[in-house]
Amino acid sequence: MVIGGFIVKLLEPGDITQENNPFWWAIVTMTTVGYGDFSPETPAGRLVAVLIMFAGISLVSLLTATISSIFVAQKIREGKGLEKLDLKDHIILCGWNQNADRIMDSISNLSGKKKNEVVMINDLNEDEVNTIKNKYPRLNLFFVSGDFTQEQILERANLKESHTVIIIPHAVEASLGSPDEKTIFATLTIKSIEPNIRVVAYLVDRDNLTHIQRANADEIVISDDFGAFMLASHVMDPGVPQTVKKLMDSRSSSRFKRIDIPVDYVGKSYQSLFSHLREESGTILVGLFSEEENLGIGAILSSDSSSLDAFIERKLKEGGISLQEESKINVVINPRQEYLIKENERAIVIP
């Protein structure tokens, strides 16, 4: 533009040579806009114009191709799970197994009208990931490829800005004696990076419960607990498992829900809130929950001095995790009628 403008200014007479007109004409010509407000009149000027046109076509094409390739490459990297995500207040799902589909389905149903952002960290291929994304259109699904026990992989999922991390056992690996080992390692890594992130861990073997508690998981789900209860109830208490299934089905209109307690009922009795909800909307109050100060991880550590205990304690201290008090969820089911509702409590109800 600059060189062409100077040459045209030297070669051409008339308005095209006035002030900044040559440079304006050059950039209009290069971008093929062609307003036609100025044009060269001499053969030499027209020859320069031809050269500027070809140079402009080449440079503009190169610019647009470069910008396009950057976006295409970014999309390809995102599809392969290699791009760092810029998300906030999202859910991270580490691992993938036969239960993951049901977890995603429940998150989708419980989200309501809100479109939650969920980041999957696993080693699925791109086609499998696209199939999952198409299966759950009500969720904003993102993918990070790699081992979720590695810090750089977790950072790629923007762990520090996430809301909750769910860890489920991945496909059994030959290098691990139990799928729970990877869950424990991942919990330790996450808590060392960001101690305040809420971690919900799924265990296969109850024998590993102590280890995952020492790793400071906020909530723990054990695979055999609910299944064993349901099987026994089908035999001993028919009707109970069917009721529980409806109460816990994310698609059911009668499932458990949590609601905020009206400010007017803070300090009043449980019975008064129960009656209010029942009369107002037909809702049944089941219990209350709050975040309370429970025993810290230091109280859970056993007195033996095994190498695993020492390793876990050292990793927690390196991550700046307190071994004292930790915030946990405290639930009170159907307390006595005169129980007084506290300010920080919320209600569990059946609509």
CATH homologous superfamily title of the largest domain: NAD(P)-binding Rossmann-like Domain
Number of E-state strands? 10
- Average pLDDT number: 83
- Enumerate the strands of the largest sheet in spatial order, edge to edge or round the barrel: 3-2-1-4-5-6
In CATH, the architecture of the largest domain is 3-Layer(aba) Sandwich
Which shape, going by the Cα principal axes? elongated
Largest sheet: 6 strands, parallel
Low-confidence spans: none
Query: What level of helicity do the residues show?
Result: 40-55%
Order of helices and strands: HHHEHEHEHEHEHEHHEHEHHEE
The CATH class of the largest domain:
Alpha Beta
Compute the number of helices.
13
Number of domains: 3
Pairing-aware structural class of the strands and helices? alpha/beta
Instruction: Report the radius of gyration as a whole number of Å.
Output: 31 Å
